[in-house]
Design a protein that fits this description.
The chain is built from 11 helices and 23 strands. The protein is of the alpha/beta class. It is globular, with a radius of gyration of 28 Å. It starts with a helix and ends in a 7-residue tail after the last strand.
């Protein structure tokens, strides 16, 4: 940051400090703002903290313009975090960074590669000879019938179909978007440009559909480093192998919305047991994975007509209509009962209840666990083992497991040697753990050692493909004193430490040391991570204290 930029940023920060001081509660000594700006006018904060702690401060202080101005002034390209500490005596300190941010709990993370995303294991490919199940003529006839039935029920109120666009315009829109719609949906756009509700989702026009073909317009898809922390594991909900396990795909084309961030989409790249043009549910609230809805748009409209003909219609006194056209979440609601298996005690010696549909296995509280029955489980993607000392993990070698959580007294990772799909490993043990077997796992990208304080840190140097690493401050200190970080690392996380009891105090209110890591801890850690090559900027300044103190 050059001198002029620093001067301009200091002026903005001085204004923010003065604004906070003006509304601070009487008796305050210190205030903390944890804010951020994301560009394009986006800004926010995680609240204000005033000290002494028993003071009730104002959380409605308008600091958003100042945060946005900081983003512009420092020419940030992504999310800019702003940690601002203000002292009542008229001093402040601010820490600005696009790479250092606060993580889950009270930890921090540092971004080496802001654009990096966890790899997705897409084993399923669309069958080359799969045919669409939708029928254009039937779809149009069903839409006409549905429109008429709904119009009769509501006496034509609020039942309007938008006029279709001219054929040349429709072709131009789809060509520009680079998308080919399934024949039945294409036929529907030839008779109307949207307008009806399908499962409570508004069918929107072709121009809106084309907009969502642009990846940048798919705002609900979490991209980049955030997926390491929030939704790196993707599931699927539907008939076996009907949908590919992906967080997003350009050939998932939204055509209707509920207005709250979820979308019905046609899937043009289904799994081997799916059909092109099948309808899936994606969007803001479906970050666990896509949900199968129907085998075609034709089937989707047919379900609405059948609801009328079978009397599954309810109309309230205020005119609202409920059409029981099926359960959008039919394949997700039973997931916990069908696809998750939890075993404990004698049921884990050997593991009982394994079925081909089991995706997630949790084993706990048995010293004689036998994972033998999981061999060959075709869809076992997540395994968690808790309080099962000495468990033999070798049966997992014949499963497609991707996520492994181990929380037990002794952990032997040799059973994972060379595993082709293991991507995430979380370890929890007070005893030493040899990490070297993980070096032969070609897809391992995420490792969490927060609750494994005695792990052999030297083994980390062999994990040359590691993209995400989470550890405690003492572990990072030991690691960085011995070796350089893996060049593949995209995200490093400094985890929250357990509260440390003070030895010299016995009173309850002074029983524990201040929580760590603190912001100074994080700054020191980031400097060691990068060899003092961070983008972190610290600015100190003064402001005119408010008379109100």
């Amino acid at each position: 940051m050059n001198g002029d930029t620093r001067t301009d940023a200091s002026a903005i920060l001085t204004g923010l400090a003065e604004k906070i001081a003006q509304v601070a509660p009487p008796g305050w000594k210190r205030a903390v703002l944890r804010g951020y700006a994301t560009g394009h006018g986006g800004a926010g904060h995680h609240g204000f903290w005033f000290e002494p702690k028993d003071l009730n401060g104002d959380d409605n202080i308008d600091v958003f313009e100042g945060l946005r101005d900081l983003h512009t002034t420092v020419a940030a390209t992504g999310k800019l975090t702003v940690d601002l500490e203000v002292e009542a005596r008229g001093r402040y300190r601010a820490v600005l960074s696009e790479r250092l941010d606060r993580g889950r709990d009270r930890g921090f993370y540092y971004l080496f590669d802001k654009e990096s995303e966890p790899p997705e294991i897409d084993r399923l490919a669309a069958a080359p000879d799969a045919a669409e199940s939708g029928d254009p003529g039937e779809a149009v006839a069903l839409l006409t019938e549905y429109h008429q039935l709904l119009g009769q029920l509501l006496e034509s109120k609020y039942v309007e179909l938008s006029a279709p666009l001219p054929p040349s315009r429709r072709r131009q829109i789809l060509d520009d978007a680079g998308v080919r719609l399934p024949r039945d949906l294409d036929a529907l756009y030839a008779v109307a440009d949207g307008g009806l509700l399908l499962h409570g989702f508004l069918w929107f026009g072709l121009e809106t559909l084309a907009e969502f073909c642009d990846p940048d317009a798919r705002w609900w898809v979490m991209r980049g480093w955030q997926r390491y922390l929030h939704n790196s594991f993707v599931n699927d909900f539907g008939p076996p192998a009907a949908i590919r396990r992906l967080s997003d795909h350009p050939a998932w084309v939204p055509f209707a919305t509920d207005g709250f961030g979820d979308y019905l989409a046609v899937d043009l790249v289904p799994g081997p047991n799916g059909r092109p043009g099948q309808v899936i549910l994606i969007g803001r609230h479906q970050d666990e994975g896509p949900i199968y809805v129907a085998d075609s748009v034709t089937e989707l409209v047919r379900a609405h007509v059948q609801a009328f003909t079978s009397g599954r219609i309810e109309q309230s006194d205020d005119g609202n209509v409920r059409i029981d056209s099926g359960d959008l979440y039919e394949y997700k609601r039973p997931y916990d009962d069908i696809c998750k298996l939890k075993v404990t005690g004698m049921d884990a010696a050997p593991v009982r209840g394994m079925r081909a549909v089991v995706r997630e296995l949790s084993v706990s509280n048995t010293p004689w666990v036998d994972l033998g029955p999981v061999r060959g489980a075709p869809a076992l993607w997540k395994v968690a083992v808790s309080n099962c000392a000495g468990v033999d993990l070798s049966p997992l070698s014949e499963t497609p497991v991707e996520v492994v959580h181990l929380a037990t007294d002794t952990i032997d990772l040799s059973g994972l040697q060379g595993h082709p799909t293991v991507g995430q490993v979380v370890l929890r043990s007070e005893k030493p753990i040899d990490l070297r077997p993980l070096a032969s796992c070609p897809r391992l990208y995420a490792l969490d050692l927060t609750d494994a304080p005695a792990v052999d840190i030297s083994g980390l140097g062999q994990l040359t493909g590691l993209r995400y690493l989470r550890m405690l401050r003492p572990q990072w200190q030991e690691f960085l004193s011995q070796q350089a970080i893996p060049p593949s690392l995209a995200v490093a996380e400094l985890a929250e430490e357990p509260l440390q009891e003070r030895k010299l105090y016995w009173s309850f209110d002074k029983a524990y040391e201040k929580r760590r890591p603190t912001l100074p801890d994080a700054l020191e850690w980031a400097e060691k991570l990068t060899g003092n090559a961070t983008d972190i900027v610290t600015i100190k300044g003064k402001f005119k204290p408010s008379r109100h103190r």
